[in-house]
Design goal:
The chain is about 35% helix and about 30% strand. By secondary structure, it is α+β, with helices and mostly antiparallel strands. The strands form two sheets. Strands 3, 4, 5 and 6 form a four-stranded mixed beta sheet that branches. Strands 1-2 form a two-stranded antiparallel sheet. Helix 1 packs across helix 3. It starts with 6 loop residues before the first strand and ends with a strand.
C-alpha cells in the first residue's frame, strides 16, 4: 500500500511522509553490522544519512533504493540480505507496511 495514500483503520486514516520512510531505512542501515553509507559513516548525523536513501512510491507499494559500502572481509550477499531484512522488518513493525522492494547497490568496500 503506498505510503502517500495512507492506511485506513476504524479510527481514521493514517498518512506517512516520505521523510519517515527514509529515516527508518537510514537508521536500519546504520544499526546493521558491517555496512555503511560512506567510508566515514560514524561521523554522519541521521539527517545526513537520509540523503543516501531514495524512496519511490508506485501504485503497488513503496520501493526503497540505497547505495552502501560493505566492510572488508564480509560476505556481500549475507550483509546486503541482512540490510534488506532489517529495513523490511522495521517498516512492518513501525508502519504496518511492507516495502515492495529494497534495492541495495554496493558501491565500495569499507577498509
Amino acid at each position: 500500500m503506498p505510503y502517500g495514500n495512507g492506511m485506513n483503520s476504524t479510527e481514521g486514516d493514517v498518512n506517512v511522509s516520505r521523510h519517515v520512510v527514509e529515516m527508518i531505512a537510514a537508521v536500519a542501515v546504520k544499526e546493521t553490522k558491517h555496512v555503511s553509507f560512506t567510508q566515514e559513516d560514524t561521523k554522519l548525523s541521521e539527517r545526513a544519512l537520509m540523503k543516501h536513501v531514495k524512496v519511490e512510491e508506485t501504485e503497488e507499494g513503496v520501493v526503497i533504493q540505497l547505495a552502501v559500502f560493505v566492510a572488508y572481509g564480509q560476505s556481500i550477499i549475507k550483509t546486503i540480505t541482512a540490510v534488506q531484512e532489517r529495513i523490511t522488518q522495521d517498516m512492518d513493525t513501525m508502519l504496518a507496511m511492507t516495502p515492495l522492494a529494497v534495492n541495495v547497490k554496493v558501491v565500495g568496500i569499507q577498509l
